[in-house]
Design goal:
2 domains; Dihydrodipicolinate Reductase, domain 2; Rossmann fold; 10 helices
Length: 399
């Protein structure tokens, strides 16, 4: 039987300009990587993005391991903890349900929370398959609550600047998108089989874990992907703890509905790459490039934009000026921010949309965006199996 206990944390009332800031109660499912990252973001929203549209109040956090979740509640500042996510769904103190659990627990808790009237944010991939993602989107969308799929790289200042440049037509007609996400963390054959290496829990491997981020950015920056040709590999098929039945690496050639072509690559077998997510976009008027490991920089080439530009190739733009996206909350130019700040921007956007009843899109990824990314992932897996080019399926919302 699950337990729910108070841990003695008190949130004091906050005011801005003499007016009390309304609170929004947060219920967090998951206390490890994403639970920690999102909890940190809510705490920073409380005092850095001042005044916040609503004051995040950390009400309760949930996890299966009671000692671990109790310690997380104490460290992160939650009022209570539980080992049963259904208690979060029923808790009237919670208005926003944040799902940072493993992929097999994305559907049921998120749907239940939305049907209980709570706004929801769910980590990517939205579902283990496109079918599961579609079901989550449809059932949650019918409730009328705000919903966001946590593709946090949309909220990197340099990525948002890239989007602004594309919207302004500075790159002209888009020809190419090349994106890759490379890590090294499971190259050791002695590495234990964890949930990310189990299809029943994760759905896919590097594709859903890393490739989904690249696919979402491709959609966000260039547009919908219409067809793919893909290949996958599992390099180490047996590990301590059992057989591996997901991909270790994926390569895909993609076609965009707008006419551009591109490549998408994801692997967890690239020695020397820690968190190497990069993309480059080439257009008729110029090119831009981005490297997550240098996330405060955008590589830009706009020939003819100033004297001597043609001879200089790419130049590095430090995205830290006061007029750059999101910098109104941070430091003087040149004083860098990091990966964790993407979560601050992302969750501030969600809370602002809740407070002002604004649409999550186009900058926030909705559950529809999560579903459409899943369709691209599924098409890549179909192509890897069939050896043929596969069209990306596209279903619309049920009425």
């Amino acid at each position: 039987m699950s337990k729910q206990k108070q841990v003695g944390f008190v949130t004091m009332g906050a005011t801005a300009g003499g007016k009390k800031i309304k609170e929004i109660g947060i219920g967090m499912l998951g206390y490890a990587f994403m639970g920690k990252a999102h909890s940190n973001a809510y705490r920073k929203i409380q005092y850095m993005t001042w005044p916040p549209p609503l004051m995040p109040k950390l009400v309760a956090i949930c996890g299966r391991n009671e000692p671990a979740v109790a310690e997380a509640a104490r460290r992160y500042g939650y009022e209570s903890y539980t080992t049963d996510w259904k208690r979060l769904v029923k808790d009237d103190r919670i208005q926003l349900f944040d799902n940072g659990s493993p992929n097999n627990l994305h559907a049921a808790p998120t749907i239940a929370a939305a049907e209980a009237g709570k706004h929801v944010v769910c980590e990517k991939p939205l579902g283990r398959t496109a079918e599961e993602s579609y079901g989550i989107w449809q059932r949650v969308n019918k409730t009328g609550v705000k919903h966001m799929c946590a593709f946090n790289y949309r909220f990197v200042p340099a990525v948002r600047l890239a989007r602004e440049m594309l919207e302004a037509g500075e790159l002209g007609e888009i020809y190419h998108f090349r994106g890759r996400y490379l890590q090294e963390w499971i190259t050791d054959p002695g590495f234990q089989k964890v949930w990310r290496l189990d299809r029943k829990v994760a759905g896919s491997g590097a594709l859903g874990d890393l490739g989904a981020h690249v696919i979402d950015l491709a959609r966000y920056l260039v547009g919908d992907i219409s067809a793919v040709s893909g290949a996958t590999r599992t390099f180490i098929k047996n590990r301590p703890g059992g057989a591996v039945d997901v991909d270790d690496a994926v390569e895909a050639v993609v076609e965009f509905g707008g006419g551009a072509v591109g490549t998408i690559e994801a692997s967890r077998f690239c020695l020397g790459r820690k968190n190497g997510m990069t993309f480059e976009i080439n257009g008729s008027k110029g090119s831009i490039g981005f490297d997550l490991e240098r996330l405060n920089e955008l590589q830009v080439h706009l020939p003819g934009s100033r004297p001597g530009a043609d001879a200089q190739g790419f130049r590095t733009v430090l995205v830290s000026e006061a007029n750059h996206p999101f910098w109104q909350w941070w430091w003087p130019h040149g004083h860098m921010i990091g990966w964790e700040h993407t979560m601050v921007h992302e969750l501030h956007h969600l809370i602002d949309c809740i407070a002002r009843n604004k649409k999550i899109g186009p900058h926030g990824a909705t559950f529809e965006d999560g579903y459409r990314t899943s369709e691209v992932c599924d098409a890549i897996l179909r192509s890897a199996k069939s050896g043929r080019r596969e069209a990306v399926r596209s279903r619309t919302a049920k009425r």
